[in-house]
């Protein structure tokens, strides 16, 4: 899928990422130049102070696309849901 | 096929373990692990567990699939709670049935390591004086422990 006609995607934030961003979820419409998860992080970081603080240590925030763990170089093409969260502390 | 439940309420470990072997004659071993909330000398009022609904269940299922591909298992049950959990309360159960104990012990350990590092849950501490502490940080030892099970990753 080319990025040219990409629609919106749902973004979810958890734990301290949610607290810093200031919301649990939202709809995103990134421009076509945003192709990867890493691009999305950079784009989000420019949206305001809360986002910038949430992503100030990029390696400290994990990402999932459509409920699967992904790395920063994963393409967001076709993804319906993206999530950002700290390293997991369950169990 | 594993039984996976992500829930707010408590569970009965004895009943879950028994259910894996009841009515069967092929199960020779059931290994279970129950994780509890520590009180940390009275300073902790509760843990508050946040999770990613949907992905939590799916990620545990992926871990269970890996365990089943790796060892000859006859059943597995994983239960993980979310929400406020007081000291002394149960947080998590992993129970694995197999013909022999070796596979059951190993699979239970792998599942716990994966739960700690890959299942989308986050703990925060609520102190006895009412203070909400920050989010608990992940431990390097948990990553190292989980890395034992992955080949190429």
What does this structure look like?
The complex is a heterodimer of chains A (91) and B (153). Chain A is α+β, with helices and mostly antiparallel strands and 91 residues long. Chain A has one domain: Roll (Ubiquitin-like (UB roll)). Helix content of chain A is 24%, strand content 23%. Chain A has a 5-stranded mixed β-sheet with strand order 2-1-5-3-4. In chain A, a hairpin with a 2-residue loop joins strand 3 and strand 4. Chain A is globular and about 35 Å long. The termini of chain A are far apart. Chain B is an alpha+beta fold. Chain B has one domain: Alpha-Beta Complex (Aldehyde Oxidoreductase, domain 3). Chain B is 33% helix and 35% strand. Chain B has a 4-stranded mixed β-sheet with strand order 1-4-6-2, sandwiched between helices. In chain B, strands 5-3-7-8 form a 4-stranded antiparallel β-sheet, with no helix packed on it. Chain B is globular, with a radius of gyration of 16 Å. Chain B starts with a strand and ends in a 6-residue tail after the last helix. The interface between A and B is medium-sized, with 16 and 29 residues.
Brief summary:
The complex is a heterodimer of chains A (91) and B (153). With 91 residues, chain A is α+β, with helices and mostly antiparallel strands.
Number of strands of chain A: 5
Estimate the helix proportion of chain A, in percent. Answer: 10-25%
Number of domains of chain B: 1
Oligomer: heterodimer
Task: Give the strand order, joined by hyphens, for the main sheet of chain B.
Answer: 1-4-6-2
Number of domain modules of chain A: 1
Order of helices and strands of chain A: EHEHHEEE
CATH class of chain B: Alpha Beta
């Amino acid at each position: 899928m080319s990025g040219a006609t990409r629609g919106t995607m749902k973004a979810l934030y958890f734990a301290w990422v949610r607290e810093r961003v200031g919301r649990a979820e939202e709809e995103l419409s990134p421009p076509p130049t945003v192709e990867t998860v890493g691009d999305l992080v950079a784009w989000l970081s420019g949206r305001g102070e809360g986002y910038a603080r949430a992503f100030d240590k990029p390696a400290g925030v994990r990402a999932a696309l459509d409920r699967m763990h992904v790395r920063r170089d994963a393409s967001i093409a076709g993804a319906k849901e993206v999530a950002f969260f700290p390293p997991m502390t369950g169990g | 096929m594993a039984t996976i439940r992500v829930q707010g309420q408590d569970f009965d470990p004895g009943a879950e373990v028994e259910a894996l072997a009841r009515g069967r004659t092929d199960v020779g071993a059931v290994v279970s692990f129950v994780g509890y909330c520590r009180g940390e000398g009275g300073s902790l009022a509760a843990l508050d567990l946040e999770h990613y609904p949907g992905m939590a269940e799916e990620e545990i299922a992926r871990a269970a699939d890996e365990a089943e591909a790796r060892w000859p298992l006859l059943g597995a049950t994983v239960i993980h709670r979310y929400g406020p959990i007081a000291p002394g309360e149960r947080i998590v159960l992993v129970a694995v049935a197999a013909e022999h104990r070796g596979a059951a012990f190993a699979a239970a350990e792998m599942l716990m390591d994966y739960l700690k590092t890959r299942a989308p849950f986050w703990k925060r501490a609520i102190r006895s004086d009412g203070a909400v502490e920050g989010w608990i940080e992940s431990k390097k030892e948990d990553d190292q422990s989980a890395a034992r099970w992955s080949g190429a990753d």
